[in-house]
Known about the structure:
Blueprint: E1 2-10, E2 13-19, E3 24-29, H1 35-45, E4 61-70, E5 79-88, E6 93-97, E7 100-102, H2 104-111, E8 115-118, H3 129-140, H4 142-166, H5 172-192, H6 198-210, H7 212-242, H8 249-278, H9 283-303, H10 307-325, H11 327-373, E9 380-392, E10 395-404, E11 412-413, H12 420-433, E12 442-446, H13 454-467, E13 472-476, H14 480-483, E14 488-497, E15 500-507, H15 510-522, H16 527-539
Parallel strand pairs: 3-13, 3-14, 8-12, 12-13
Antiparallel strand pairs: 1-2, 1-4, 4-5, 5-6, 6-7, 9-10, 10-11, 14-15
Amino acid sequence: MVTTLHIKNVGIIDDVSIDFNEGFNVLTGETGAGKTLLIGALNILAGGRFSKEMIRKGEQFSFVEANFYVEQNENAMDGNIIVSREIHSSGRNSCKINGRLVTVSQLKEFMNQLLDIHGQHDSQLILEQTEHIHYLDRFIGSEIVELLKKYQTKLTQYQAMKQELKNTYGEEKEKERKLDLLHYQLNEIKQAKLKKEEETQLEEKHKKMQNVEKLKENLTQMDYELNEQAISAISNAIRALEKIQDCGREYSDKLSTLKNSYYDIQELGRDIRDLQEEVDFDQGERDKIEARLDFIYGLKRKYGNTIQEILEYGEKLEEEIHKIENLEEYHKKLKVQIEQLEEEMRQIGMKMKALREKYSRILENKINQELKELEMPNATFTVESNLSNHFYPSGLEKIEFMICTNQGEETKPLAKIASGGEMARIMLAIKHVLADADQVETLIFDEIDTGISGKASKAVGEKMKEISKKHQVICITHLPSIAAKGDYNYYISKKIKDDKTYTTIEQLDEEQTIEEIARIASGEVTQIAKAHARELRKVS
């Protein structure tokens, strides 16, 4: 949910911050005070379009920032997330998520998971036909999850095989040239007779050859110090200790330790002499090692970063050669596998279609009942399914939500509803039924109550209130029956200072809320208007 929104230099908004809460947040206020600008700022933050005219007069940039608190969900988001967008008059645009720069398209994709903004005539998600099948599937729930997973796994295999089937390697001459190249590469790798650890061993030996003088000099020094100096000195010390070993146990113990050291140093001295013999390298051998290493480096430049990768590449070459030489037979096998996958996907797809048809009727009944409660008794919501021979990402069919608002009229897609008042109620009915399935936590309504009044406005307020039990709802309204339903009410006003207009936002206490409901109900705050406002609050 949105916990804090900070807006700077947007329209008449100079610099304001507002803290939102869980539940139903209602914003009311003076005409032209900046209510819609506030929602516009959230729309900017959601990756929406921005006009330079929205930058406050006399300023060079606009800045919008919000803190969202997200409980761990299926998108692996958790905790506080800070999102910001800064737009300059020069056209420079900076979007950040938790301080990390992102593109506008990345910002939009990310924010679609957090915000669903509804104006009088638009919706980010519910009006997109491609989203309808996802809404329906979330309404169905676990019954369709496994089927969809199996279908999509097979679809991935199917698409890969179809792509492979298109690969004919060109005309006959081109195919021959390709084969010649593959055979050349494979022969080069095979004739190299590479061994997995060969390069490491050669490099180690080559390193020794490069440092032969340094090795000889220091090994000779070590041989002299150990075999001539150290062993002679320890031998003399042993003879001295042997003369006094009977004088006490501590002397005999030291003698034993010294003898062990003597034998260890003797062994070490022999090892050093062996190492001396190993550093006598033949120049011819060094040339061979360098030539072999150069050859291996050349193969690595062509076929892989390591000998293991080169060998694996060789195996792939053999597979591809076999595939090209037996292309007709290979394609026949692919076609059989593709046909088998198509049949399996059709079977799963028809199971999903049957499941969707069953739940579509349930969804229709629920939404039509909601529409009646929203004072649209003649409206009919239907879920239209169009079966196809095409394998779509979600099955064999396309799903579209349709509506007929008046008896005798034709059924139309949701996006073609003309009346803002009707759209508001249809959208609320759908949102209320799909509240559990909808993963977007914050719903924002910008004066979607335009065009409705009386019983319809009361019903809209009640639906928003119900939705707010499962989602954070932020709503701008001019209707008292909706404002009275708010868990938290905010008043937006404007003031003029030094010939400039400034927007202010204030969270109202209960008495201030009553006065604001009275104001928007009757135009002035009278005792009668306040009494009516209290009645509206009681009903809420």
